[in-house]
Amino acid sequence: TSTQKPTRPGPQTNEYADAQLQELVKKLRERANVYKEKLNDPVISSPEASPPASPKKPPPPPKEEKKDEKKDEKKDEKKEEKKEEAEAKPEEDHYCDMLCCKFKKPPLKKYMEYMKLPDTIDSYTDRRYVAWLMLVTIAYNWNCWFIPLRYVFPYQTPSNTIYWLAIDVMCDLCYLCDLIVFQPRVRFIKGGDIISDRAETEKFYRSSMKFRLDVISVFPFDILYFFFGFNPALRANRMLKHNTFFEFNDRLEAIMEKAYIYRVIRTTGYLLFILHINACLYYWASDYEGIGSTRWVYDGEGNMYLRCYYWAVRSLITIGGLAEPQTLFEIIFQLLNYFMGVFVFSSLIGQMRDVIGAATAGQNYFRSCVDNTVSYMNTYSIPKLVQNRVRTWYEYTWDSQGMLDESELLEQMPTKMHLAVAIDVNFAIVNKVDLFKASSFTGECRNGCDTQMIYDMLLRLKSIVYLPGDFVCKKGEIGREMYIIKQGEVQVLGGPDGTKVLVTLRAGAVFGEISLLAAGGGNRRTANVVAHGFANLFILDKKTLNEILVNYPDSEKLLMKKAKVLLKQKGKPPPGPPVQQPRGLASLFGQKQETPKLFKAMLGGKGREGLAKLLQLKKQQETQETQTEKETKPKEEEKKPVQPAAPSAPPAQKEKPQADAKPAVVQRATSKESLIISMTPSPRAGEGEILKVEIKEKEKK
Known about the structure:
By secondary structure, the protein is an alpha+beta fold. Among the domains are: 221 residues, no CATH class; 156 residues, Jelly Rolls (Sandwich). The protein contains 22 helices and 14 strands. Strands 5-12-7-10 form a four-stranded antiparallel β-sheet. A four-stranded antiparallel β-sheet has the order 6-11-8-9, with no helix packed on it.
């Protein structure tokens, strides 16, 4: 029996080990590339964080000191526990039970701390001061409206005097608190500086005219009630606190969103107050002449105040239809009333017109711009479709922003305020741009990028509104701008017909940032970007960025480096299916290189068919050239003059430069030539191989 030798199994490989080794090799290559870039450009910092310094070990303390330290630590721990318990108690105690609900109630101390007045008050920003001014204004209006009413009309009687006095005392307390507590704390400006010293503010207030009027307004002339009775005319000095009333108007308009509404209400109040004073004067004149004594005076029937107010309205507005005055006093009173009515009423109407005009000034400007644009388009016969889009742009821009150009409003502000507004509005969006962040291989936040450069860039951003369907950028265009989506959505289109939605970008997204620092004037757009709806975008162009970077050379160098890194990252092909690794002995040899593209183009196909087509084209070209040569040779011989013999020279030297000058000329007979195609390695490393095509004539036998 013949013995058979056992066959040895082929070499086996571990797929997991191969994958781990390949991953390790990939990481080592990336690390080597990082260090190469670090050597080429020292601006980029090291990708590895420096190890922290190891703390020095203190010498061991003696045993007695250890015991003392342990005791101190225990005492400190007990104190901290007591503090934590004391802090936790108020939060647990302040709960309020109401029906079936239990809710937390803040302690009284917090209310007291919030209500505690500071040493000085900023009248422009402190809302508590505005609330206090409103309370004083209410007291002032009470005195202005009811002191003439109580003095003229018999509404204050002995039975209700106590109620009038109670309200008067409350108003006087408001005046006193304002004089003693609030006004001495108000800050003021001196030489451009805000004075916040309590002693200085008190001194400034006491030296002002406002302090003198406030003192006169609270002077207690009410003491004379004991001598002259309860006469409301003794309180006329309370109407001198008009400075507080106008100050409240200014502060309230400064904090209101729609201040024109309050202006209209205030102007209407002025008109009603003048009519109120006129009604009081008419009743006083009627009482002086005698109630019902003539047809002109009040006859004493109906509600006395409403009848007198009705007469004041018809007289002051010069409606007419009133009874003719009879006596000299009545004639003079009526004439003065007419003159005052014409002047006051016309001034109030003019003020009302200014208030309404200021409230609608923006809307009027918008309408005038739209009308001018429409008339321009009609003059040049612009298509209706374009006109409708222009109107839509105007309407949406005005509704969304309240103005047509935000830069016009911001340019009126100082640069610092403009920068503060731009930081609050745009800094969070610009901070998302990869170009202005740290490099992808560093863990630092803003590695060397100057913050002031970012601020200057924020001031140069332009806001543009795109309508639905508008192209933000088209494929093939030179990219010179960066876009930041402030509001709305845009879609990136691609595919063979350019209508497939590749991705949808929303508010806060950024695209086109690589175009700002691309060399050679910009790179071309690779896809169409279309506004999905109404989109508000910020734009920063390349020219503006270059003007900014002139003052920041270090940031320019860093940004150029980041742009190269981002271009490398975005230029990588998308991850495809994993490539199968060769097994066994095949893994020792490299993969077969792909056929060069130039060689494929010359062949025009696969295998011998492509080469046959190339040879066929060569033959057709040669036959055409031979025919043209035969036709031109006899004509040239006839015209050619006789020339002397040229000096002897080797023919090889004459033919050689001609061959060098025109290496691409194909010689003329198909039967006497051969085509040689070869691939030779390039003399420079990393350039691959060189394709050579040679056409040689066959040697004559």
